[in-house]
Amino acid sequence: MSLDWGALQILDAMPDIVYLKDPSGRNVFVNKAYCDLLSLPKESLLGKTDAELLPPSLAEKCRESDDLAIRTGAPIRVEEQDVANGHERFFETIKNPIMRDGKLIGILGISRDITHHKVVENRLAESEDMYRRLIETCPDAIVQINSSGKIILANRRVAEITGYDDSSELIGRNSFEMIPGSEMPMISTMADKIFGSGRGCFEVTMQRKDGSTFDANVSVSTIEKDGALHSIIGIARDITSQKKAARDLMRYSKDLERLVEEKTAQLRDKERLAAIGETAAMVGHDLRNPLQVLANVFYMNELEAKRAPKEFQEVAEAMGLPKANDTVRRQIAYMEKIVLDLQDFAREMVPRPIPADLIQIIADSFPLALPPNVKVITDFGAKTVFADDYMIRRAISNLISNAIQAMPLGGTMTIATCKKGDSVAIGVSDTGCGMDERAMANLFKPLCTTKAKGMGMGLVVVKKMVELQGGSVKVESEVGKGTTFTIMLPDKTP
Which of 88, 89, 346, 378 is most buried (CB neighbours < 10 A)? Predict the structure, then answer.
């Protein structure tokens, strides 16, 4: 094989490795760079094959690439790797089969050391891999949008918060698909600020694939290339739960304020009730004895009047003394009720429940003299109740008295009992004047009354007597139509 020595001298001066092999694979020319690579003089390289000069694995790769170039009959580009003195080296080689009259006369190879390039490339690949891993494992949604508004990068979290199966579904989509139309004016305003400063942070409502929405906090920054906008990096965090927590905290705060106010009011009420209780106990005690004396004296006078001569009785009747006596009797009974209410309100009581006859208790709870203009209707669906005899009598008696007082011009009183689940209901209704909301709000407060007569203790005692037995009192009223009080007691009849 004849050689152009002028051309070979140029090749000898090249920094790349250049060699020429004959068809058998033996070197007929190597340049200085090849000699420097193997640290051998040319004389030691010429006439030798790759198998004689290179490590076995590299020699085998070189033979395979030689065969490939010969089979194709065209230049090929291959990457070769060598390890020398513990260091990895990479070469990019172009092998060109030299043909004459259709016959192979040699192989020209040019190899360039790309070790530095390969190291940089590997480091870049590692850096990109680390960058992608960092993006993929980030708990926040990260998205990159080009200048046309198209998504060119999205991590796993973007797909999760927007309802897509995979982040690849988002690539190429218009980023505004994730923003509801109602938010576009705000987005437009923020865009002007972001393009001016290069970054921004704001809260926005975002839209999922299924059309549902969620609250997000978004931070964005712009990326420029050659002085023009290249893309925008956005980092979004779903703050729906945080905003809900903030709303709940605000609500809890308001509830706490309300609770403090209620407890404060309850404390004031307790202090007030304690003072009323002390006063009630004192007044009840101080009135009880003289009232009893008055009742006894009146009783004795009535007995003496009945023993008086007939002429005296006729004179007394003509003077209206029997009617006056009836009035005194009713007033004494009313004063006794007031004293009894005061004492019952003030004293500590422990219920002693027994099976009780409701019909008899209700019958005994009526006053001795019922106003003639008051009609009574009864409906005993429940005939017994497990309750403290004294307490239930006092409660029903006060409700009946209250109903009678609510109908000064007469009316109908209905007393009905029935079983409701695990409770016994005792209802007392009247067709009196009824009550408005303001009156009902103060209904069970001591010393609060809308009546011209009374101290406002009767219903307070009713509530106490019922609640001490684990029951409750419900009231329904309509102005001009009447009122219904319902006692609910646990049905614990053995």
Answer: 346
